[in-house]
Write the structure tokens for this entry.
Amino acid sequence: MTEKIKHFPGEKLSQKQIDEGEVTTVKHSPNVKYAWSCGEAMSRFLNEMKKGKLIGRKCNKCGRILFPPRMFCEECFRPTNEWVYLKDTGKIMTFSKSYLDTNAKRIKEPILVGVIAIEGASENMGFMHYFGEMDPDEIKIGMRVKAVWKDEKEREGAVTDIKYFRPLKEGE
Amino acid sequence: MAMLEKTTDVRALRHWEGDMEADYIYTTGIAGDKFFKEIKENAKITGTKCKKCEIVYVPPRMYCERCFENLEQWVDVSDKGIVHTYTICNMDLDGSKMDKPVIMAVIKLDGMHGGIIHKLGEVNPENVKIGMRVQAIFKNKKERVGSILDIKYFKPVK
Amino acid sequence: MRDVAVIGAGMTMFRRRLKETGKELCYEAAKMALDSAGITLKDVDNVVLGSAPDAFDGIHMKGENLSDGSGGYRKPYMRVFTGGGTGVFAPIAGWWHVASGMADICLVVCEEKMSCIQPHPQAAFAHIWDPILDRPLKPNLVWIFAMEMNRYMHVHNVSKEDIALVAVKNKNNALDHPCAQLAAKITVDDVLNSEMMAWPVNKLDISPPSDGAAALVLASKDMASKLTDNPVWISGVGWSIDSTMWTNRDLYFPEYVAKAAKMAYKMARIDNPKKDIDVAEPYDPFDYKELHHMEGLLLCDKGQAPILTKEGVTQRDGDLPVCPSGGLLGVGNPIAATMGVKACEIYWQLSGQAGKRQVPNDPRTGVCQAWGDLMQFGSVMVMRK
């Protein structure tokens, strides 16, 4: 390949060439909006978030308590059976300290984010959320944490009704 | 089993709103860039010819989609042609009624294979006929940017 | 099932921004592959196109749009898409066509034009997250890689230095690749001192977004014997997907890659991949992913990949060369078009056409792998001379 082929196609372009109109381009911004149905399980999940509670679903066949809740068990491929209230504490399964925001813009103070396995659900049943009230150097896999909720009147039925998870203090 | 039960309180069912934010810059490509620059500089329509298949492509391509040969022969194409088909649009993209209908047509320029899409102008909808001869009307040179809109519309000619 | 051979391949340059339209990129790679196989479009029975989200190119129904540049004009044509797994999944889909007897020659083309979306491909990646659970937290895709890398480092007690050795190796290997976007001689310190993106990921741990295309020609045994005396056989294929609930899985080991690998090895009658595989191209969008995937491909025990890397086993002249092309880290990451440095590279290596990148000692069995979606999908292909 490399010995026989003399020319590899591909004409490189720089952002400058595009900005200065050296090549013809067409610009377009789609205007696309969505209203996603949350479905049975996530609707209940969000309603419970508004009440300051975390809820899971149990599959009676494999016995797993699934969180986030779903109406079917993806392993047994059958409908799940019952709602189970969970604690709002858990263990950090993994984390990252991000110096990038959602638009890939650089930020100075890192966002602490990770996956928390929720107590009351089966092993490894976690979801993603922020961490707070801790130094970036303190955060460790295995740390026990607790949800810090918004005030009741500020909660709207969203995953952000929890502000972040904080370390569990001695004796909690 | 909950999945098969009826939901009796629809207020318990939620939806989540969001959008897909994105902006795009599309390059016109190796062949496309040459095509649009000819339109911008010289108000000329060009195509590429596949000798094997005897087809002139407008807009020009760098390859023949039928025999997959590299197309290097560029030809000038007439700015006149016939209306191959057309439609009269009364609604805009959002579904609201427009004051004046827009006539979109597929125009087969003399010498090209197939057609291109553009607007018809200086003609009333009821006078448009398939087979009608039309000619491209270009913007002034200083208004042209190297876009398909550098052609304002096609208008009927004898 | 019939025997299927690879008889030709091609690829374009990988760059952050190319002038060609998506169709033109497909044509360039496809024409090169046909020329290298000594055939024309007329000889092709079926065409498979692989391309990742429509959102990158910004054209809905991208598969249809790219069809004429891929030789799909009035032919049986299909587009497959498994996120980053497409680079190896597209040739697998091509294999289906020939192995089943439906085609004697199948052209497989993969394309990606990530430069269209503004301001950065991140804007498209944003929509891979769950809209209810994840997007309200305004995530950046680097977070999920960072969390997986953290878990891998934690379980196996691997340091960032160990992982950085992969970036050093691959960018160095890429110096011999004519299409490479980011080939360079760098050091471990360069990686560790590069900008911190989301701990533990630094800038030089990541491959760049790219524009590019690649193509392969697959042929039945009869056609291959007429057209070439240097075929490379596809002896095993496998693919598998895990659940989207990535927060319910321990990310330190890619089960779905292992499942896909076992499927491919079984078909290829490989009992001992550690011994039987001579050269490997696992998917390396981040440096830690090469290690993660080496273990998923069962090329070494869990936790052993960093040790093999430190010992030089994965260098081109080592016992198990890994990513001799320079991989995604060195050559570029145009998602589906990475077929050029995975499946195409194994073809070029086994047929002795890899030029300056050729691994010595006449490799006879190679494996390539790709991976996609929310840490979910693995596609694996074993090839043999």
Q: What stands out?
A: The domain at 4-118+208-384 of chain C is CATH 3.40.47.10 (Peroxisomal Thiolase; Chain A, domain 1). Chain C touches chain B through 32 residues (CB under 8 Å). The first strand of chain C starts at residue 4 and ends at 11.
